[in-house]
């Protein structure tokens, strides 16, 4: 390999790059020409320093491993603005999702909140826990007091399908 | 006894690098009727051509197969070469070993060689059955139609008129001048656009060889190269061009306010007005969509302009007029349009009054524009404290137009320099760019000049532009040179809108049966070697209708197109290709399928008597037919055939192809 990142002495990993390309069904979504419009408008940039154009470029160069094991890919808010606004119809969003899948495949560290969300769905059928709300007159209400139906736990068949889906290998 | 010569070209390493040319030549020698087979580095070179000519004489060859590049490249070269040796030029068959074999199959040289052999075998089978054809000469009209009166049409008209041709210049608007007339100054020399354009416009009006048809459009085209019959619809101005002196008194009294298209609708004019300050002809025009009397069709309504006009030029009874012209050639110079940035909601054009397009900036900066040349934002009418230019709007964008607009960068550099000159040092000027392209003569120096004038370049494109309640704008942009997220505040944002194909282009496509390229502009016959002409003979291209262009390129292309017209028409007659469709009248059933399919309108249905009954028969106008073969393929009775491509000749090729499949043990599925 003719390329070295002298700041970390890392070498590109073309195999990992091929995995990402397979997940993205080709390189259309990686056709970035660095206009940086995605990063200018990124919802996660200001707080979390996610730079979508950098992710596009790093994957193109083959520096996939450092991304797959980094926390940065988990900060994407999946608002899809980068995909919608990209003048080249590339999509940092799709690349980030592919990187997340690769990270899970390799059993890299996944942020706790995500694992929590998964067990939440498995047990309760919802991505968020049922919460109490405070209304304008400062009363605290729950579903019962608002006469909303109770939330039933998901059927067993759902849990089976869900677990199976988790174990399934994506391309 | 047929004696065939086969010549395999190496094309340097283009073909020989993949195909085993020696093997192909050896194989050709084993084919029936082949007397000579050779291979050579460059068949198209002088020595290559001489080799063929010598062989024709020495071996008495009467058919030639040349296995080389695409016939679009050198068929004509080889036809001329064999004609010099005394052979009919239509007894040559070109086999394409470069575009159809070597280039697409560079990974599989062995299979490529097999394919080359098969194609040569097919070529030999076909060439045996070719018949000698003679070229015809037809006389041509020495008049030229120029469609579009922008700088491209003006330049082509002047060049042709000076060369002695009679020109009809048709312009849709009430004045010539086009886009260039709207511009303030021009890059990279900062000449005032009006100063260099207006004299040319006046020259057009005064030239004895040019008939200027403004407010007019081409509605119908018939005929063929050298002999086009064109109908031009001259829309009424309702003002007598001979009487009107262009004083503008009528505009002062007219009560109906109308958006001023010349000023990009940034200001208003009246229902009777002179198109622009430098209009040629400088004559008032009444807009029938707005004029009260014309709209109500009531002769007692309004009429203030009639009272004001001292020259008694106004005439409400004018009717549209059809003008029929006979011309030998056509120059299409219908130009382009500016991208409509309101299609990109993220930039807020159309929503925020202080986000303007580059063409709107031109009008604001121009001394004859709505602000008399004072750069100001349109809401509040104050000079801006900060201006931001945003590049690549609608171009280099797969959602809209994939191509580079070729002018956006230079236009923004020029406008930034103009803003700095007019507003002085206290103003912040930024250019948010992606790649800054300054490729022309003197352009890079111009870019340097902009940097010297304290214009800041930000390497990044904003994702959304936002507006505060008072109309000032702000947005985030990530600067990739410094890796910083910048927040910019601006009183004026100028979008570098690209050039896009106009409605005129789709009209030209229908009228003249010319082709469009994938980007929507008109397609030239060859991107490198025939960039000034359409594939339809006698139709030439000038300016931005062929692809986005700046003024220097447009003028160069217009002069080039004029030279091509002179080349075509100056001798008074032209040679036409004999590869045409011919109709067997006994077989024709008059079903009209060919007539409906012909893209060149070369088929006419004639009434004719046959076995006592009257019926329709197809007839091909030879000079119009381009020999494309659509009719022949579709004809249900097989009555139409194309010279050199009749069933016998094509089937011989098919049989030769299948013979090889059997030979290799392949199946005939």
Write the layout of secondary structure elements.
The complex is a heterodimer of chains A (171) and B (669).
Chain A: H1 14-23, H2 37-40, H3 45-48, H4 52-61, H5 64-68, H6 81-85, H7 92-105, H8 112-124, E1 133-134, E2 140-141, H9 156-167
Antiparallel strand pairs in A: 1-2
Helix pairs in contact in A: 4-7
Chain B: E1 4-9, H1 21-29, E2 34-40, H2 46-59, E3 63-68, H3 71-84, E4 92-96, H4 98-102, H5 109-127, E5 136-139, E6 143-147, H6 151-162, E7 166-170, E8 185-186, E9 191-192, H7 193-206, E10 210-213, E11 216-224, E12 227-234, H8 249-253, E13 257-259, E14 268-270, E15 272-274, E16 284-286, H9 292-296, H10 304-308, E17 321-327, E18 329-332, E19 336-338, E20 355-357, H11 358-365, E21 386-393, H12 408-423, E22 428-433, H13 443-452, E23 456-459, E24 466-467, E25 473-479, E26 484-490, E27 492-497, E28 499-501, H14 503-512, E29 539-541, H15 551-569, E30 573-576, E31 581-583, H16 593-597, E32 603-610, E33 613-620, H17 630-634, E34 640-642, H18 647-663
Parallel strand pairs in B: 1-2, 1-3, 3-4, 6-7, 6-18, 7-10, 18-29, 20-27, 21-22, 21-27, 22-23
Antiparallel strand pairs in B: 5-30, 8-9, 11-12, 12-17, 13-14, 15-16, 19-28, 24-25, 25-26, 31-34, 32-33
Structural notes for this entry:
The complex is a heterodimer of chains A (171) and B (669). Chain A is mostly helical. Chain A has helices at residues 14-23, 37-40, 45-48, 52-61, 64-68, 81-85, 92-105, 112-124, 156-167; strands at residues 133-134, 140-141. Chain A folds into 2 domains: 14-105, Orthogonal Bundle (Fumarate Reductase Iron-sulfur Protein, Chain B, domain 2); 112-163, no CATH class. Helix content of chain A is 45%, strand content 2%. Chain A is globular and about 65 Å long. In chain A, 27% of the residues are buried. Chain B has 669 residues and is an alpha/beta fold. Chain B is built from 18 helices and 34 strands. Chain B has a 5-stranded parallel sheet. In chain B, strands 20-27-21-22-23 form a 5-stranded parallel sheet. A 4-stranded parallel sheet of chain B has the order 2-1-3-4, sandwiched between helices. In chain B, α1 (21-29) packs parallel to α5, α6 (151-162) packs across α7 and α12 runs parallel beside α13 (443-452). The longest helix of chain B is centred in the first third of the chain and has 19 residues, at 109-127.
């Amino acid at each position: 390999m003719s390329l070295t990142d002298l700041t970390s002495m890392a070498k590109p990993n073309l195999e990992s790059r091929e995995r990402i390309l397979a997940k993205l069904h080709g390189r259309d979504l990686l056709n970035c020409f660095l206009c940086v419009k995605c990063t200018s408008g990124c919802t996660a940039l200001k707080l979390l320093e996610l730079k979508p154009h950098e992710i596009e470029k790093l994957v193109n160069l083959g520096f996939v491993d450092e991304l797959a094991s980094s926390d940065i890919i988990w900060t994407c808010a999946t608002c899809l603005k980068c995909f919608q606004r990209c003048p080249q119809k590339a999509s940092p969003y799709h690349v980030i999702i592919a990187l997340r899948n690769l990270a899970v495949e390799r059993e890299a560290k996944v942020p706790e909140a995500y694992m929590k969300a998964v067990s939440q769905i498995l047990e309760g059928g919802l991505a968020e826990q049922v919460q109490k709300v405070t209304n304008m007159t400062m009363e605290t209400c729950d579903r019962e007091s608002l006469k909303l139906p109770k939330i039933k736990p998901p059927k067993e068949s759902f849990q089976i399908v869900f677990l199976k889906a988790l174990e399934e290998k994506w391309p | 006894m047929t004696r065939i010569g086969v010549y395999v070209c190496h094309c340097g390493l283009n073909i020989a690098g993949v195909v085993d040319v020696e093997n192909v030549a050896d194989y050709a020698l084993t084919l029936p009727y082949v007397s000579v087979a050779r291979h050579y580095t460059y068949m198209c070179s002088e020595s290559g051509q001489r080799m063929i000519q010598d062989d024709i004489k020495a071996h008495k060859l009467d058919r030639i197969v040349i296995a080389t590049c695409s016939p679009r490249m050198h068929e004509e070269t080889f036809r001329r070469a064999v004609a010099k040796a005394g052979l009919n030029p239509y007894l040559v068959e070109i086999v394409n070993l470069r575009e159809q074999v070597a280039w697409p199959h560079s990974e599989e040289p062995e299979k490529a060689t097999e394919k080359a052999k098969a194609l040569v075998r097919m070529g030999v089978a076909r060439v045996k059955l070719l018949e000698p054809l003679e070229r015809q000469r037809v006389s041509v009209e020495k008049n030229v139609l120029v469609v579009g009166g922008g700088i491209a049409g003006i330049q082509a008209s002047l060049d042709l008129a000076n060369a002695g041709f009679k020109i009809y210049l048709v312009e849709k608007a009430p004045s010539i001048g086009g886009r260039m007339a709207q511009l303030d100054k021009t890059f990279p020399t900062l000449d005032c656009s009006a100063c260099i354009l207006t004299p040319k416009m006046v020259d057009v009006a005064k030239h004895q060889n040019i008939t200027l048809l403004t407010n007019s459009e081409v509605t119908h085209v018939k005929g063929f190269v050298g002999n086009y019959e064109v109908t031009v619809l001259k829309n009424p101005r309702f003002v007598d061009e001979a009487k009107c002196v262009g004083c503008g008194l009528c505009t002062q009294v007219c009560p109906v306010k109308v958006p001023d298209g010349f000023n990009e609708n940034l200001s208003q004019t009246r229902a009777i007005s002179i198109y622009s300050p430098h209009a040629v002809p400088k004559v008032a025009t009444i807009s029938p969509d707005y004029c009260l009397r014309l709209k109500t069709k009531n002769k007692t309504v309004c009429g203030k302009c009639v009272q004001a006009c001292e020259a008694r030029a106004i005439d409400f009874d004018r009717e549209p007029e059809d003008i029929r012209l006979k011309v030998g050639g056509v120059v299409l110079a219908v130009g382009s349009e500016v991208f409509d940035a309101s299609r990109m909601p993220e930039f807020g054009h159309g929503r925020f009054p202080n986000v303007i397009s580059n063409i709107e900036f031109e009008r604001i900066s121009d001394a004859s524009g709505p602000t008399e040349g004072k750069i100001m934002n349109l809401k509040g009418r104050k000079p801006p404290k900060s201006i931001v230019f945003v590049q690549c709007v609608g171009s280099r964008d797969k959602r809209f137009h994939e191509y580079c607009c070729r002018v956006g960068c230079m236009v923004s550099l020029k406008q930034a320099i103009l803003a700095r000159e007019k507003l002085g040092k206290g103003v912040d000027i930024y250019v948010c760019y992606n790649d800054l392209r300054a490729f022309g003569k003197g352009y890079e120096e111009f870019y340097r000049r902009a940097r010297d004038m304290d214009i800041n370049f930000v390497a990044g494109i904003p994702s959304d532009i936002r507006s505060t309640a008072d109309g000032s704008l702000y947005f985030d942009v990530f600067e990739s040179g410094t890796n910083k997220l910048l927040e910019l505040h601006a009183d004026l944002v100028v979008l570098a809108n690209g050039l896009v194909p106009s409605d005129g282009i789709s009209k030209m496509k229908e009228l003249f049966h010319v082709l469009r390229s994938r980007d929507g502009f008109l397609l030239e016959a060859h991107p490198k070697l025939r960039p000034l002409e359409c594939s339809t003979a006698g139709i030439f291209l000038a300016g931005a209708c062929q692809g986005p262009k700046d003024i220097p390129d447009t003028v160069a292309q217009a002069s080039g197109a004029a030279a091509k017209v002179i080349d075509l028409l100056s001798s008074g007659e032209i040679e036409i290709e004999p590869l045409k469709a011919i109709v067997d009248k006994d077989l024709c059933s008059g079903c009209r399928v060919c007539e409906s399919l012909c893209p060149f309108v070369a088929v006419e249905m004639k009434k004719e008597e046959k076995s006592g009954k009257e019926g329709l028969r197809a007839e091909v106008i030879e000079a119009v037919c381009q020999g494309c073969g659509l009719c022949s393929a579709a004809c249900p009775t097989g009555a139409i055939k194309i010279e050199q491509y009749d069933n016998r000749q094509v089937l011989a090729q098919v049989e030769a192809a299948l013979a090889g499949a059997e030979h290799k043990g392949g199946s005939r599925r």
